[in-house]
Backbone:
């Protein structure tokens, strides 16, 4: 505990001492403030505030704040943002001032695209590399299954981001497993990003303002996962007037309401979705009594208390519910809440205090009868975070702060229900972890040609009691039979602790305004693993925190990139190549039993992974036709040596005899082509085509007859590959030219999987149903036919 | 008790909109590996073991058991040779008339015509746990056809670490389909009276067919409650996973299934299959209409 207090004290000391970095200014003055949407009062994240005469400027942070320090003088301040009219302001800056800019959205959809493209050469000039940013309007244009805009499916069309198959839960970034992505919704971690086992993501695009995915060069303020950070920000709500947005689709409908609580001061946003297939199922005899639906609700309240203080409270609650009469029921869902306080300590020092709560739980069971039981599992995470953005000069910005996280893992409890039930109560013991972290990062322009982004993060991780630790005969968790005793840890006593520095560095060498070379290095550490032994993660997978036997994972990633813009920034090109080395990853023994297992450590094996690849992207940003082509060539392998000990010692427990094998998500070639065409003011067309190598699979070495059954003999893991995946999706959006004064609507229709390709999800092997002497190979396709869709969208 | 099955049926249900088709693949012939299929129980009866070899996954016939008929096969009880198996060419298997003793350990010792010798690991024959009651019921399934269910009651002895396999026989014919594999540990029911445990079911159509084939026109179902060892239980978990938890996005990954028969002197070389011990308690019910 002593170490714990030391760490907490250190964190507090650093985060409460912003004056350490304060600086006296001479003839220099500071212009600072917020950039907002003039119509809605929504903060604009990533808007550019440029001092034309200096050719330099600032980009607004995630709260829309900017601060620029410069010499006194007359300047032209140009403020621009995608989809908004650029504002040019002539200003005579004699003293430090606060200046908020309200940008007008470009009304005409046709113009929107053209104006958006005017900005900018950020691809070349920004030091941040390996980042994918997609506007919600682009995400809404990309055709998706049943016409439902989906943030996570859209981001998979970018280089370096894939999934194990159609409709699979989560996504894989640069060779990382799905648990290596930190998914943040208004800074609260989301543990399961999927509805309906992975077909749809939990993010309602109507409630979302901004999505940023960091694949590399991750800023030091983020930590806790190896491969990526997906930072999703909810909209604040319109603080000028009341509005609604919604849509009616084939699978679900959505409605968002927003408006001022106090004009220009406080606003609210409430957004909900619910699927309704089950309501129709009730009408049929076969499905009567069955439940199958999901819903989610986003809510946010924002309040500008005064020029210096703002408060945001936001929450998300979503659930998937399934049930078959009174025979079986199953539900899962996330709940997150965050409370944030923005304070301008000075015109150069921006503070954000966040309190976060996040909960993921599932429950399944049989409600009545002798087999009645209820099974629940939960992970609860609460944290406090303090972040400072310190705009020291136009050339140097510091970001520093700390966070304190608390986790409670309840892996599972099963209880019998009613007097009739044969079930005893089984509880897999709770695990508790606390994680104080501190970080500092700097964004520095060394010269006009060289820009740096560097930082350091330190996390100390404690797995604390109360906990009963199994002790094993050979000191390593071999089998449940090798347990020789139990060591008891009392409440708050440290069971295991780990820590480590995570350096981050990125450099941009700007050759000229059209091209640049970038490089980055990052070390990331992950202190919890998702325990999943199926091809696609399921909602009943649990998170296992690092502990006495399970080490945290560490990754080092190196990236080199070349960035170039053509034709007055109409085209952007990026080429990145990365190498990632991952240590202490988890894989599973053959036949691992992961659920309700008191000795789960005996099912886990630890190994190392390597991923490397080349990512290429060309995008067209301007004109009536926009879109991109992205291509990734990559390789990801793992190596799990196992250990030789215990009663099963005659067997070396490693996977593939300790030799490297391709991971499930290793896809050699991955190509996406996305195009959007504004035909007229009323018609927009879009389409995307994907092509990727089939994922690795294990084919049988042979078969044998045992106990009357033909049993496949599998030897080498993932030595084969399933056939290639390719698919074309198209959609058209019709916005009638005659619109009501208030009520505006549009129709989107299209086809997913236009040519009905039966893309393989998996190839598996089984005894033939027709002739039991034969065994056969079967291919599973999740969606093997063209799926048409129509969606009606409205605004008022 | 049946948690696995519930979760499985549910997760497969999640992929209702999917489609599957048989595809053509060619796989190389594997190197020959010995397969051992047998067990020893407390029943005083003819007990047997079958020897065969691993074959190509797409082979179109049952294995050639006769290829191993010249092998020498011994049953070892508590470390000492207890009996010698004799090959019965009519049933393509090695047989002995033998009754296992509770608490004794058993192994099989095989010498192939090539001189290679294989021995199974020691397995203890566990105390039996009797079935208390057995009965059949006609279940009225609102969403599907009616079916006949065979249920039992039993008392699970106190103390964790008991493992069971249930086998079903319809008019003495062993039901060996992959979904007939039914086994459990005692974690959820330790020391409890286990009631209404459904072990076997058949459609009314199957019942009519059995009735037709039966010389007496009657259908009897025998349920065997086998007490087994943890290692064999783990083996069954893998077999079940590899045969049944397949074909969905939530399938278990293909995995090597390691048995308990080793080549002597080379513990890294395993035969396929398993030689296990089983404490059997059985009870029979006549299905009444």
Residues:
């Amino acid at each position: 505990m002593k170490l714990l207090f030391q760490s907490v004290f250190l964190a507090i000391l650093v985060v409460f001492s912003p004056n350490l970095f304060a600086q006296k200014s001479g003839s220099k003055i500071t212009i600072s403030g917020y950039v907002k949407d003039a119509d809605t009062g929504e903060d604009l994240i990533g808007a550019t505030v440029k001092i034309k005469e200096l050719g330099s400027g600032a980009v607004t942070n995630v709260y829309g704040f900017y601060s620029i320090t410069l010499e006194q003088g007359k300047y032209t301040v140009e403020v621009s943002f995608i989809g908004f009219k650029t504002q040019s302001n002539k200003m005579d800056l004699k003293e430090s001032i606060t200046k908020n800019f309200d940008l007008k959205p470009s009304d005409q959809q046709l113009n929107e695209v053209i104006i958006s493209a005017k900005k900018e050469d950020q691809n070349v000039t920004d030091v941040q590399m390996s980042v994918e940013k997609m506007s919600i309007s682009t995400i809404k244009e990309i055709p998706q299954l049943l016409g439902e805009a989906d943030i996570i499916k859209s981001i998979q069309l970018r280089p370096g981001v894939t999934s194990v198959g159609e409709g699979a839960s989560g996504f894989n970034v640069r060779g990382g497993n799905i648990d290596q992505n930190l998914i943040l919704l208004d800074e609260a971690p989301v543990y399961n990003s999927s509805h309906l086992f992975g077909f749809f993501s939990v993010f309602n695009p109507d409630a979302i303002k901004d999505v940023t995915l960091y694949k590399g060069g991750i800023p030091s303020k983020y930590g806790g996962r190896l491969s990526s950070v997906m930072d999703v920000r909810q909209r604040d709500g319109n603080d000028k007037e009341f509005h609604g947005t919604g849509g009616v689709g084939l699978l679900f409908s959505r409605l968002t309401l927003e408006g001022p609580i106090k004009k220009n001061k406080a606003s609210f946003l409430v957004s909900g979705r619910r699927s309704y297939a089950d309501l129709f199922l009730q009408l049929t005899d076969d499905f009567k009594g069955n439940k199958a639906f999901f819903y989610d609700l986003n809510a946010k309240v924002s309040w500008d208390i005064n020029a210096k203080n703002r408060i945001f409270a936001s929450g998300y609650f979503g659930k998937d519910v399934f049930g078959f009469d009174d025979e079986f029921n199953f539900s899962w869902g996330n709940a997150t809440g965050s409370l944030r306080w923005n304070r301008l300590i000075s015109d150069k020092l921006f503070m954000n205090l966040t309190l976060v709560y996040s909960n993921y739980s599932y429950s399944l069971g049989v409600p009545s009868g002798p087999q009645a039981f209820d099974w629940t599992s939960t992970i609860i995470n609460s944290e406090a975070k303090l972040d400072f953005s310190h705009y020291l000069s136009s050339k140097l910005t510091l970001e520093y702060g700390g966070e304190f996280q608390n986790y409670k893992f309840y892996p599972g409890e099963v209880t019998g229900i009613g007097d009739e039930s044969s079930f005893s109560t089984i509880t897999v013991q709770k695990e508790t972890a606390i994680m104080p972290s501190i970080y500092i990062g700097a964004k520095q322009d060394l010269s006009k040609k060289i820009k740096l982004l560097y930082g350091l993060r330190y996390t100390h991780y404690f797995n604390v009691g109360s906990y009963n630790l199994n002790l094993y005969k050979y000191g390593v968790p071999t089998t449940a039979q090798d347990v020789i005793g139990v060591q008891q840890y009392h409440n708050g006593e440290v069971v295991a602790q780990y820590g480590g520095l995570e350096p981050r560095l990125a450099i941009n060498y700007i050759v000229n305004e059209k091209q640049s070379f970038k490089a980055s290095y990052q070390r990331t550490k992950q202190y919890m693993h998702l325990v999943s032994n199926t091809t696609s993660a399921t909602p009943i997978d649990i998170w296992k925190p690092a502990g006495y036997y399970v080490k945290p994972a560490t990754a080092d990633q190196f990236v080199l990139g070349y960035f170039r813009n053509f034709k007055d920034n109409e085209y952007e090109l990026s080429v990145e190549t990365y190498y990632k080395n991952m240590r202490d990853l988890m894989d599973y023994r053959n036949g691992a039993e992961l659920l309700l297992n008191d000795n789960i450590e005996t099912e886990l094996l630890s190994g190392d992974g390597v991923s490397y690849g080349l990512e290429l992207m060309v995008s067209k940003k301007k004109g009536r036709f926009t879109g991109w082509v992205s291509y990734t060539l990559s390789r990801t392998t793992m190596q799990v040596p196992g250990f030789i000990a215990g009663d099963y010692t005659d067997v070396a427990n490693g996977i593939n005899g300790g030799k490297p094998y391709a991971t499930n998500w290793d896809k050699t070639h991955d190509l996406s082509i996305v195009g959007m065409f504004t035909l007229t003011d009323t018609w927009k067309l879009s389409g995307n085509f994907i092509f990727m190598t089939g994922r690795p699979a294990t084919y049988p070495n042979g078969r044998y007859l045992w106990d009357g059954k033909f049993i496949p003999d599998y030897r080498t893991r993932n030595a084969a590959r399933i056939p290639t995946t390719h698919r074309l999706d198209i959609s058209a959006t019709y916005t009638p030219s005659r619109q009501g004064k208030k009520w505006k609507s549009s129709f989107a229709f299209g086809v997913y999987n236009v040519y009905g390709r039966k893309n393989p999800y998996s190839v598996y092997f089984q005894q033939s149903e027709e002739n039991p002497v034969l065994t056969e190979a079967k291919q599973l396709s999740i969606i093997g036919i063209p799926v048409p869709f129509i969606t009606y969208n409205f605004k008022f | 008790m049946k948690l696995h099955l519930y979760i499985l049926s549910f997760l497969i249900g999640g992929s209702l909109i999917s489609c599957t088709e048989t595809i053509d693949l060619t796989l190389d012939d594997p190197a020959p590996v010995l397969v051992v299929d047998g067990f020893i129980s407390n029943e005083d009866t003819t007990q047997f073991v079958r020897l065969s070899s691993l074959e190509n996954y797409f082979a179109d016939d049952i294995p050639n058991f006769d290829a191993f008929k010249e092998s020498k096969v011994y049953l070892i009880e508590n470390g000492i040779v207890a009996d010698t198996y004799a090959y019965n060419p009519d049933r393509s298997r090695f047989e002995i008339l033998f009754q296992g003793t509770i608490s004794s350990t058993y192994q099989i010792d095989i010498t192939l015509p090539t001189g290679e010798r294989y021995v199974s690991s020691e397995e203890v024959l566990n105390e039996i746990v009797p079935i208390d009651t057995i009965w059949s019921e006609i279940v009225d399934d609102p969403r599907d056809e009616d079916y006949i269910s065979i249920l039992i009651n039993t008392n699970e002895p106190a103390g964790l670490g008991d493992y069971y396999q249930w086998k079903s026989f319809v008019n003495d014919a062993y039901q060996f389909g992959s979904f007939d594999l039914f086994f459990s540990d005692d974690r959820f029911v330790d020391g409890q009276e286990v009631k209404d445990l459904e072990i076997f079911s058949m459609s009314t159509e199957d019942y009519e067919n059995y009735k037709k084939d039966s010389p007496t026109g009657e259908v009897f179902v025998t349920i065997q409650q086998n007490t087994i060892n943890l290692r064999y239980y783990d083996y069954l978990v893998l077999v079940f996973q590899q045969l049944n938890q397949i074909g969905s996005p939530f399938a278990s990954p293909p995995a090597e299934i390691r048995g308990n028969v080793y080549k002597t002197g080379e513990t890294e070389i395993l035969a396929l299959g398993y030689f296990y011990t089983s404490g059997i308690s059985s009870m029979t019910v006549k299905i009444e209409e």
In short: The CA atoms of residues 245 and 252 of chain B lie 6 Å apart.
